[in-house]
Design brief:
456 residues; 6 strands
Length: 456
């Protein structure tokens, strides 16, 4: 699978464009190129919502990745490797945290139930009558009955789909029931999932092109909704409400997504100055940063910090605004404060390192390299960190390490050709036998083998 990564600075620190290879109708959508969003606050909120559900499902949170797809459509899905993907459209559409948690619990039900592997087998089984129908159609044509043969071949897909959708409906209903069980175990209500389905139930009667992706892959039925309603009504915690804290966290995440993904004009219209909520102020601060109207962005974010001095994400945003405006020295204290409040936050560490490296001070550059080395080792698939490390090494004049970091960045996103090229260049610059030289040799060999397999 080829993956490409592009970087954009900011609290939305790294945007990753990657091909998501999808398997199984009802479990994942058709393969398509998507963009993934990296943001510390959004990731932390979703992890806090998700991890208790995963534990209740008998899954290890460290083994399950939760990724946010920059896509306005309503969708969520799982893929091989225990990955849960949530579209920004789904996050924005959730009226309550409980609705979002319900969808997450449903996807966890697919993982815990092994539905992805079973879907692959169901697809193979479903194709058997289709192949038989095609074969009979060919024989009919050869025997001089072209109309009958064409009808058999034309109906082969319908035979396969009918068989597969019967299997899918069973999986979807099982995931619904599992979701309510998981939520009930951790003292949460499953009613949000029911509300989510009921709100979009009309999707079952609209034409296929107009239907949200979620309901193409998660087909609803009256029986399924009724079974879910009965299960929710029986649950011990069916009427437990969302906490005010979680409601506010969701609102801020939604405001942040609106601010970064919508045009500033639309954001200002959605969150007018008359709205004095923190979420609205947050959205307006991000919109001002994107215009860019630096003075307004600084003023709005400074006001947020005055309201919540211990909020690391407000300091992170102000650091980013100042950095992008070229006010490097002013940005560094805010990044440092954000890290004091949120230690080991990789994206904030990268933000600080970028500011330190840009400051031009030799001591600051050394600190930046140390930070980026730490992040890259802790998150070896973070291509953004590797690229910033390559830039920092290059600034210091360390060509060998700069090329090695560039090779690591390419390798982390699956660009094996670029990884091999820069690994070979790194080998020529580095001292043979050193740890760095051996790493470059390993990348070159693995990348070369991967390219050879791709050609075979």
């Amino acid at each position: 699978m080829e993956r490409r990564q592009t970087a954009r600075a900011g609290p939305f620190g790294a945007w990753i464009a990657m091909a998501l290879l999808a398997f199984g109708i009802g479990v994942a959508p058709a393969a398509t190129a998507q963009s993934l969003i990296r943001d510390t606050e959004i990731e932390q909120t979703l992890r806090d919502f998700t991890d208790p559900i995963l534990v209740a499902a008998g899954l290890a949170p460290r083994d399950v990745r939760v990724l946010v797809v920059s896509d306005p459509t309503l969708n969520a899905f799982v893929t091989q490797g225990q990955n849960i993907f949530l579209h920004t459209g789904l996050i924005l559409e959730a009226d309550t945290p409980n609705q979002l948690k319900g969808v997450i619990a449903h996807e966890a039900g697919h993982i815990s139930g092994g539905h992805l592997a079973r879907s692959l087998e169901a697809q193979r089984v479903a194709m058997r009558p289709a192949f038989l129908s095609i074969g009979l159609g060919i024989l009919a044509i050869a025997a001089g009955a072209p109309d009958a043969g064409a009808a058999l071949i034309g109906g082969s897909q319908q035979f396969a789909l009918s068989s597969f959708f019967r299997h899918t409906q069973v999986q979807e209903s099982a995931a619904d029931q599992a979701a309510v069980t998981y939520l009930d175990r951790i003292g949460m209500s499953g009613r949000g999932l029911l509300e989510f389905f009921e709100e979009f139930r009309y999707q079952e009667v609209v034409s296929e092109p107009r239907r949200n992706p979620y309901f193409r892959t998660h087909p609803l039925s009256s029986d399924r909704i009724q079974a879910l309603r009965e299960r929710v009504d029986r649950a011990q915690n069916s009427n437990v409400p969302d906490t005010p804290e979680n409601i506010e966290r969701l609102r801020r995440v939604q405001a942040k997504i609106h601010g970064f993904l919508e045009s500033p004009g639309r954001t200002y219209a959605r969150f007018p100055p008359s709205d004095l909520s923190i979420a609205a102020r947050y959205a307006r601060a991000v919109a001002a940063y994107r215009v860019p109207d630096t003075e307004m962005a600084v003023r709005e974010t400074t006001a947020l910090i005055a309201l919540e001095p211990e909020n690391p994400f407000f300091h992170e945003l102000l650091g980013q605004i100042l950095f992008e405006a070229g006010r490097i020295a002013e940005s560094i204290p805010h990044y440092r404060r954000a890290l004091e409040l949120k230690p080991d936050a990789g994206l904030i560490q990268i933000g600080l390192a970028r500011a330190l490296a840009a400051d031009g001070n030799e001591a600051d550059l050394a600190e930046a390299i140390t930070i980026l080395e730490t992040v890259s080792l802790r998150e070896p698939d973070n291509g953004f960190a590797w690229r910033e490390l390559a830039t920092a090494y290059d600034t210091r004049g360390d060509a060998g390490m700069a090329r090695l970091a560039t090779a690591e960045a390419a390798f982390s996103i699956g660009d094996v050709q670029r990884a091999e090229i820069f690994a070979q260049r790194a080998k020529r610059e580095l001292d043979p036998g050193t740890t760095a030289w051996r790493r470059a040799a390993d990348i070159a060999m693995v990348a070369q083998n991967a390219r050879s397999r791709g050609r075979s």
